[in-house]
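It is worth pausing here to work through a concrete case rather than discussing structure prediction in the abstract. The textbook approach is simple: state the sequence, then state the predicted structure, then interpret. We follow exactly that order.
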Amino acid sequence: MATKVIDNERTAMAQKVTPQPDGPGLRIGRRGELTGIGKVTPDGARIFRERLPQFQAEAAYWENRIGTVQSFRLFLFDNDTRILFTIVYDDDFKPYVEDLMNYVSPWMDQIFGGVWEGYTSFKDVPTLMDLIRNAQVTAEFFYAAYPEISCRDVEKMKRLSAAVSEMLDAAT
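Step two, the predicted structure:
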């Protein structure tokens, strides 16, 4: 049962949460979220943990190829029988998945191949979309700090800040 929100000083900054317009998950400003739960293959927990150090070490390389991922969490639970992933990314779902297929599919295959039951390849689009649809769980609560600022905006601000700091250091 939904209750009415009481307007007050704490709700003045409320974010507008909507369904993602072109896929699963929720949206606030430019931020989309995707959460999914899948079954782990019989040998998946062992495979996952063997590969974990490598794909953790390569995360920045692969994610920077896309440049739209705010956060990505992945873990096994229920006595290593299920896998949960949550991703917060910039902009729309379909372009995000296309970027994954075009730029990071080898990494996704390393993470999920042999671990997530039903996963074949990130390039197998129909199977992948069915797998995501079946695994997807819409968040009941979603909050995003700075929902209008993209990852690319943050990188630009970091470069600008470094340039201004360098200029100020040179002037002193």
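Step three, interpretation. The chain has a mean pLDDT of 91. The chain has one domain: 18-171.
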